[in-house]
Specification:
heterodimer, B: alpha/beta, Rossmann fold, 6-stranded mixed sheet, 3-stranded antiparallel sheet, 9 helices, 9 strands, transmembrane (chain A), membrane (chain A), transmembrane helix (chain A), ABC transporter permease (chain A)
């Protein structure tokens, strides 16, 4: 519990995390404004914005562990925080669990606020054409929250392995916004539909590829990927020198 | 009491540490001396559970660091620099460390005052000088009033005033009954501060005893050190 409070405190006082929060709120809301004004509303209105806004969640997850390894030159006062972290919480399993829970809590809160902003925006701009706030929409919104949390943990797990946030962040953020490599891959290789991001997107968007995956199945496939990654990350983290 | 028992560390094909065995006792300042690259930091990192020994063990009051229930109350450590992330403020850094040990924010303010960086508490660590970073690291180490203190090169980067301050501080801590272990490659800075001396060269302990024992017939600790390390030339 103390370890969790320490990790939440770390997240709340890291400027980069607030950048992630800003990105997670501004990007999907901004896109919602643009799409509402320029395109015809469809079944994914509001939700496709969240599929891109997930980059805020990814940055948050990566920053939570990448910041432990930020190093600087000899002349600066800043240094690798991981030494302080591991002397405060020597059990690496407990530390990693505390971090995973802290990231999950922070990302879930971020996702809920982002969804509220995006749907407020589309309702304000589209009025009756916006998706109704019915049970189906709420189920998909819940799926979006789960997707954000799992994507954050995906970034987190990869960064535990690399000990540097730049590569996982670049790959995952690019894939979720600019060039959707996994989506292109799925066009030619059906198995690529079971990659974590594409499978997870079934929870809240209507992806149209050759393979149909039910929302719950997609969520479970993504969760399985993330759990496997976190177990691998935990095995490496508990064994290697800090 | 800090105990090293036959600690060995291999990295790839290289032996970093070979059969490191010594104690640091309560109420005394133990100087862990050796040239750069001798294995001082590696030894301290093994004590703190940061690195894993290939064989042997390092114990804090008879327990491995990783199994301590309340690590910050057993041992406070200042390794390289501040141990703080550059973009966090000094105060925020101390606060999260305090949370991890169930310590309140009032204690954080006490420590900021004690180490003399209260005015910079709301500034980001990236704006700190090396000396201020050291003081911040020291504040984090002292938060839970630990029974033992471990410092890696505590006088590095400090101005003469800071060096004097840390010397007096270390003596006070030992007089209060704490175990103080500090590593250094600067002999002349330490002779007045330490009670016991352990000398490490090339990953092996070459001398271990009281200051008088290790100095022996040499003029001072510095001469004894260079005789032991086989480096008689200018530093």
């Amino acid at each position: 519990m103390r370890a969790l409070r320490a990790e939440l405190s770390k997240l709340a006082t890291l400027p980069f995390v607030w950048l992630a929060v800003a990105a997670g709120l501004i990007v999907p809301t901004g896109i919602a404004v643009i799409t509402s004004l320029t395109t015809t509303p469809g079944s994914d209105t509001g939700f496709s914005e969240l599929a891109i806004g997930v980059l805020g969640a990814i940055i948050l997850g990566v920053a939570a562990i990448g910041s432990e390894y930020t190093a600087e030159g000899e002349e600066s006062a800043g240094s690798r925080q991981i030494t302080t972290t591991l002397t405060a919480v020597p059990s690496r399993v407990r530390l990693l669990l505390a971090k995973v829970i802290a990231v999950a809590i922070a990302t879930a809160v971020l996702a809920v606020v982002a969804i509220a902003l995006v749907f407020a925006t589309v309702h304000l701009l589209l009025g009756p054409d916006a998706p109704a706030l019915d049970g189906d929409t709420f189920a998909r919104a819940t799926g979006a929250v789960v997707y954000w949390v799992l994507m954050a943990l995906l970034g987190f797990g990869l960064t535990v392995l690399t000990r540097n946030g730049i590569i996982p962040m670049a790959v995952l953020v690019a894939n979720s916004s600019a060039v959707t490599v996994t989506y292109l891959l799925a066009q030619s290789i059906p198995a690529a539909n079971y990659l974590p991001d594409l499978a997870g997107m079934r929870m809240f968007t209507t992806v149209s590829t050759s393979v149909e995956i039910a929302p719950l199945t997609g969520g479970l496939v993504m969760a399985a990927w993330v759990i496997a990654l976190l177990i691998a990350a935990g095995a490496v983290f508990t064994r290697r020198d800090a | 009491m800090l105990t090293f028992e036959h600690v060995n560390k291999r990295r790839g094909a290289r032996d970093i540490l070979t059969d490191i065995t010594f104690h640091a006792r309560p109420g005394r300042v133990t100087g862990f001396l050796g040239p750069n690259g001798a294995g001082k930091s590696s030894t301290l990192r093994i004590l703190l559970g940061l690195d894993r020994p290939t064989s042997g063990q390092a114990l804090v009051d008879g327990q491995r660091f990783a199994s301590l229930r309340d690590p910050l109350r057993s041992i406070g450590a200042v390794l390289d620099g501040s141990g703080a992330h550059r973009s966090r403020t000094g105060r925020a850094h101390l606060r999260w460390v305090a949370r991890s040990a169930g310590i309140g924010n009032a204690r954080v303010e006490e420590l900021l005052e004690l180490v003399g960086i209260a005015d910079a508490g709301n500034k980001r660590v990236s704006t700190y000088s090396l000396g201020m970073g050291r003081r911040l690291g020291l504040a984090a180490a002292l938060l839970a009033d630990p029974g033992a203190l471990v410092f890696d090169e505590p006088v590095n980067g400090l101005d003469p005033e800071g060096i004097r301050w840390i010397r007096l501080f270390l003596r006070e801590q030992a007089q209060a009954g704490r175990t103080v272990l500090l590593s250094s490659h600067l002999m002349s800075e330490l002779a007045e501060t330490v009670d016991d001396v352990v000398v490490i060269v090339g990953g092996r302990i070459v001398a271990d005893g009281t200051l008088a024992e290790v100095t022996g017939n040499h003029k001072n600790l510095e001469d004894a050190f260079f005789a032991l390390t086989g480096d008689r030339g200018a530093r």
